[in-house]
Structure formats: C-alpha cells, structure tokens
Amino acid sequence: MDLTELKNRAKEEIEKIVDLKSADDFFKKYLGKKGEVAQIFDSLKDLAIEEKKAIGQEANILKKEIEEFFNTKADELKNASKQAGLGHKAEKIDITRPGQKIQRGHLHPLTLAMNEACCIFQTMGFEIAQGPELETEWYNFDALNVPKDHPARDMQDTFWLKDTRTVKNEIKSSKLLMRTQTSPVQIRYMESHQPPLRIIAPGRVFRNEATDAKHGAQFYQLEGLMVDKEVAACNFKAIIEEFLKRFFKTNIEMRLRPGFFPFTEPSFEIDVKRPDGRWMEIMGAGMVHPNVFRAAGLNASVKPGLGWQGFAFGVGIDRLAIVKYKISDIRLLYQNDLRFLQQF
Ligand code: DAH
C-alpha cells in the first residue's frame, strides 16, 4: 500500500475543490467510515505485528494530514461564501426595505353613505325601524293612500309576484310585490307603536324599469317619519338642512319644490346642487296625509294639538352617494369593479 501516493492524490484533489458539496464528497471518499483511510486501518489486521506498528503510525500521520487538508479547504470555502453574502450570518433583516402592503378590505361606498346617514339621524333622536323587502300591496300602496286605479300607482313600476297567496297572519294582505319604496315601514311601525315617534327605515327597494345614469332597478332608500302633536313643515326643513350640512360636510345648496305623493299633503321634492352646478333630486317628502294615519289606526288632525301630525321623507341613498363622492353614473355602484371600489 502506497501511502505517499494516497497523500499526493488527496492533496491534488483538494486543491481543485471550489464548493462545499465537493468538499463533502472529498471527506466521504478519504475520511468517511468506508473511506480510503479507514480501509488502510482495516487492512492492518492481516499484517504481522511489527509491520502493523510501522504502517499504523504512518497511517495515523496520513489521516491527520488529510484531515488538515480538508479543514483548511472547508474554512476557505466558508469564508468565501460569507464575503459573498450567502452564508448563514448574512441572513439579517433589512429594516429599511419597503414593506409588502397587506390588502385591507373596506366598506362599499353605498354602505358608507347609508351608515353615515343613519348615524346623523340617530344623533337627532331618530330610531331605526325595519320592514320586509317582499311586501304586500296593502302596505306598499293601499295603506299609503294610493288608490287602486289611480295613476299614482303607475309612478312606480312594480315587480309583482306571480304567487298571490296571502302572507301568514296578515289579514290585510293582498297581492305580493317587491317593495317599491321604504314608505310601507311607516305603516308597519305606526301600527305597533304609539306616537310621539321619530324613526328612520333604511333599506333596499325595487322598480321594474330601465336603468340609466340616475336610475337603477334596485336601490337604497332611507325613510324618515316624525309624528307628534305639533309638527310642521318648518321642522322638516330644519332637520333636513341640518342633515345635509352634516352629511356633505359643507353648506351644500338645497331647494324645496312642491311635489306630489299620495301619502303626503303638501308634498315636496328636495334637490341639491352638484359640484358641476346641476340640480339633483334626492328626496321626496311632505306632511303625512290623514288617510295614512287612519290606515295605521291613529287619530289624525290638521289642527295643532288635536290629533297626530307628522312629516315623512324618503331619501335616495344612491343619489346621496353619487353627489357626495362625485360619481358620474349610479350603475357604477353595482358593477363590483375593483378599480372603482378601491377608491373609497
Ligand atoms: N316613497 C317615495 C318614493 O319612493 C319617497 C317619499 C316621498 C317618501 C314622500 C316619503 C314621503 O316618506 O313623505 O318616491
């Protein structure tokens, strides 16, 4: 066995090594359990005692030398990789690097507008009331003083249900429809609550009509109703002015026009001035018609102090939102286009 040959071969080999993986292979080949050095020690057992001693000593020296080769190379390689920034110690966190932005969800502009409107009325003492989206003809029209064959019923194109079953426990029910307005909540509330009262009823309404930039087949309304012994149109005007000021956070210009709704007398329509100077109708309102009080089982009076009086209004939340957020087309609110929604 030529130990010098082995040493020279190992030396030559280690000098050529430039990566840790080859250094590892080198270790296995020469210094591993079944490596060449181990084989030498293995073969000693067949030798005579004198020879065993002599070669054993040489083999020990050889082993140390090859270990030395390996250790030197391993240090060299580790230092090199450290300088190149690949080593373990180079893995530190650079706190000056810009972070990765985590996408946060947020509320839809319609929800924002609705929440804000509800909040403002709540601070003025209005309580939230609710009613069903699937309504009966009685609550949506009859009780609101919209006579059966009156053209007023055509003002709001209705989605009628084919099913004309009467709704359980509702004696006054008739044909079923998707509510065209939140006004039926007025009746439902007054049937079960005694005035004085101040409520708002937020909700979705449905109209069977073509959509355009200002109209949708479904949209949101906020109904309001205040009933007391002495409530006049000036109270309504003051409350609405205050509401608009707080909602738009500016002294937005508004105008009150005479209008017609069967459930109010007199009736008004309220417009606000958009940033481009055009007027936009946002609300219908008026003094509650005595027939509406009667339908709800209350005693009405046009004279102050003798019976109940009140004002009611229905504001279009979609309209409020497009004016507040300067949106050109109401349909954008329903298209779920992230490029649009992410701006809020
Ligand atoms: N319900 C009406 C509509 O949808 C709006 C409205 C007008 C509501 C006058 C009212 C009101 O409460 O008094 O067009």
**Quantity of strands, as a count:** 9
What is the CATH topology assignment of the largest domain?
Answer: BirA Bifunctional Protein, domain 2
Helical amount among residues, as a percent range? 25-40%
So what's the CATH class of the largest domain? Alpha Beta
Architecture (CATH level 2) name of the largest domain? 2-Layer Sandwich
Please compute the radius of gyration using only Cα atoms.
43 Å
> What ranges have pLDDT less than 50 throughout 5 or more consecutive residues?
none
Task: Characterise this structure.
By secondary structure, the chain is of the alpha+beta class. It has two domains: 3-91; 109-341, BirA Bifunctional Protein, domain 2 (2-Layer Sandwich), CATH 3.30.930.10. Helices cover 38% and strands 18% of the residues. The chain has helices at residues 3-16, 20-31, 36-43, 49-83, 109-123, 137-140, 184-192, 233-248, 290-295, 317-324, 338-341, and strands at residues 127-128, 134-136, 176-178, 197-206, 218-228, 254-259, 264-273, 279-288, 309-316. It has a seven-stranded mixed β-sheet with strand order 1-4-5-9-8-7-6. A hairpin with a 5-residue loop joins strand 7 and strand 8. Helix 1 (3-16) runs parallel beside helix 4, helix 2 runs antiparallel to helix 4 and helix 5 (109-123) crosses helix 10. The mean pLDDT is 90.
